[in-house]
Design goal:
It contains 18 helices and 8 strands. The protein is an alpha/beta fold. Strand 6, helix 13 and strand 7 form a beta-alpha-beta unit. Helix 15 packs across helix 16. Bound molecules: zinc ion. Zinc ion binds next to loops.
């Protein structure tokens, strides 16, 4: 690393990151099967004779989390988990979150929320500012569970969504999981929504997968004007990855409003496609969160690819951590290391100045999120700027 590289790495290490897509923490101690299940997107145990520790994220845990628990870097899985149990989950969570240097968490509260810490509890453990991102599908399912009849569903949903969104910084849809990103780009008519709601409610509501109602939710979300996050790309096997390419949303993005930010989350392995969409549509932003954790030692390459096409004001940092605090720490550590390494190369090659490298890292790690999520709204604004 050059002298400038050391300055750049130091500046990036000091940056108080805004993690714009993240979840809460598991409260309990984890035995080896539980921990291994939490560091993979698979629902199944590792293949016979193998372990999830022998994967990029497992190596990253041993390299970067072990020292935070007072172990040598690269300590073995058993030693790591024994030390984890010895310290206890609350202390492990506190140490790993504190070590991440993240300043603010925008928390998606809609995924298996009953199993993990909520907003205030996470804030207390982390000593970090938190703000909520509300899931459209969770709100629709809540309205259905409340005994809503079909004719008034659209209005009841919009009312409930506006209430839920009042204290939030953004909205999120998991249409990628529930249908695919190849959804019909047009806003459904009121009659279509009433018919679809009738069928869903007669069937007892539950997990929302009806494509008309999913689209109705997305358009109602756009009406509120808050940044709308979309799950894109890689995730657990509830989705079909070939239907999670963001290019499938091209007509929807072309038809949609330009003044409501659309945040494409994760995106891997379609992060280059996301970068293209961020270049051509003013409302599109993206991140490579989650992929940074799961590609471990190769995350540098993913970060480099995320800097290929999109304007630098359109990329954001996220961890997408859910569950073990190792994922919260790794999201930050791997991002800082990867960005420092990639940007140092640009500086050394004379393509970028050191000042620009520090400025762009600050934009992606913190300032783009500050600008996009509820600018000017005092309470949330203060949270993000604390
Ligand atoms: Zn997530």
């Amino acid at each position: 690393m050059t002298g400038a590289g050391a300055d750049l790495a130091a500046a990036i290490d000091e940056l108080g990151l805004v993690d714009h897509h993240v979840h809460g923490l598991l409260r309990a101690d984890l035995d080896r099967p539980a921990f291994e299940a939490a560091i993979t997107e698979s629902f199944e145990p590792a293949a016979p004779g193998t372990t999830w520790f022998d994967a990029p994220v497992g190596f990253a845990v041993r390299a970067h989390c072990a020292p935070v628990l007072d172990l040598p870097a690269h300590a073995g899985p058993d030693a790591y988990l024994e030390r984890r149990r010895e310290l206890g989950a609350p202390e492990v969570n506190r140490r790993l979150l504190t070590a991440s240097g993240v300043a603010a968490l925008l928390i998606d509260t809609g995924h298996r929320a009953e199993e993990i810490t909520g907003l205030e509890e996470t804030a207390a453990i982390a000593g970090q500012a938190v703000a909520e991102v509300v899931r459209l599908e969770a709100v629709a399912e809540e309205v259905a569970a409340g005994g809503q009849e079909a004719g008034g569903f659209a209005e009841a949903f919009s009312t409930r969504l506006a209430q839920a969104a009042a204290g939030a910084v953004g909205l999120k849809t998991v249409v990628a999981y529930r249908f695919g990103l190849d959804f019909d780009p047009a806003r459904p008519s009121a009659a279509e929504v009433a018919t679809a709601a009738g069928a869903w409610l007669r069937g007892g509501g539950g997990r929302l997968t009806d494509p008309v109602l999913l689209r109705a939710g997305i358009w109602a979300g756009l009406d509120l004007g808050l940044p709308l996050q979309f799950h894109v790309g890689y995730g657990d096997p509830d989705l079909r990855l070939h239907r999670c390419n963001p290019l499938l949303m091209t007509d929807f993005l072309a038809a949609g409003p330009r003044d409501v930010p659309v945040m494409l989350l994760h995106c891997y392995p379609y992060h280059r496609e996301a970068g293209y969409l961020a270049q051509v549509f003013p409302q599109v932003y993206f991140d490579v969160g989650e992929a940074v954790n799961y590609t471990g030692g190769r995350s540098r390459a993913v970060l480099a690819e995320s800097l290929e096409l999109a304007p630098f004001g359109k990329a954001l940092f996220s961890s997408d951590a859910w569950g073990p605090a190792e994922l919260h720490l790794l999201g930050a550590v791997l991002w800082r290391r990867g960005m420092a390494s990639v940007l140092d190369e640009f500086v050394a090659a004379g393509e970028w100045s050191l000042a620009d490298a520090v400025r762009v890292a600050t934009m992606i790690g913190r300032d783009n999120a500050r600008r996009v999520y509820r600018p000017g709204e005092s309470d949330v604004d203060d949270t993000l700027r604390r």
